[in-house]
Amino acid sequence: MGKKIKRSKTVSSSVCRVHKSKNFTLLSNSFLRSSNLSLASVGLLGRVMGLPDEWDYSIKGLSSICKEGETAIETVLKDLQEWGYLKISKLYPNETEDGRIHYVYDFYESSEKDKTLSCTVMAEGKMPSNKSKRCRVNKTDNFTIVSSLLLRSKEISLKSLGLLLRVLSFPDDWDYSVAGLVFICKEGKTAIDSALKELKNIGYLVVTKLYANMTASKGIEYVYDFFENPI
Questions:
Q1: Which residues pair with residue 91 across a beta bridge?
Q2: Largest CA distance in the chain
Q3: Which residues contact 136 (CB under 8 A, 6 or more apart)?
Q4: Smallest Cα–Cα separation from 179: which of 220, 224, 219, 212?
Q5: Where are the beta strands (DSSP E) in 159-220?
Q6: Cys bridge to 87: 21, 106, 145, 156, which one at CB 3.0-4.6 A?
Q7: How far is CA 147 from CA 51, 57, 141, 165, in A?
Q8: Domain ranges, ordered by start, for the chain
């Protein structure tokens, strides 16, 4: 786990992050592959981990860099808090320099509360599939390297960002399909279809239809190419 950075501001926070290069952020697969977290929660936590250390963290601040409003952000924060990826501490006036109540937000890349069994299943690639593929970034066994531009893009919703981050964390031999994605997400098919449509519309996903004369199975197949930067 990376170091904690604590601040005392109107709404203070301490973000537990991993080391990152200038243009990339190293994200833990622990939360990227968690089937307990909603896709929006995965997206928000990934975005938080990609923010600069000096950034001011608050619900208002988070909503300013997301498509979602403050109410949606609060819902996501509750999900992260429930599964141990966020701890909120209340500081009373006698504990703060300005004599006002402050809240400290501690974000974590992994959680003892979240023992997601499907992470192992995902790593083995045992999911429904349609033999689709994707473009991905290089990663270590326990982390996924993601473009910081992707994490900071306000153009993409947290749900779609969470889905894309989860896809980028999968092993290279994993077979992709809508059924497979639904299998390892809390959301249903309609929500997954919606996220895929958004990714396609803004250039993070290209879907290619292969006709029967182009496939070994002699049946129609779809190829899913996911990109960390829009094309």
A1: 102
A2: 74
A3: 167, 168, 170, 172, 226, 228
A4: 224
A5: 205-210
A6: 106
A7: 12, 21, 18, 10
A8: 4-226
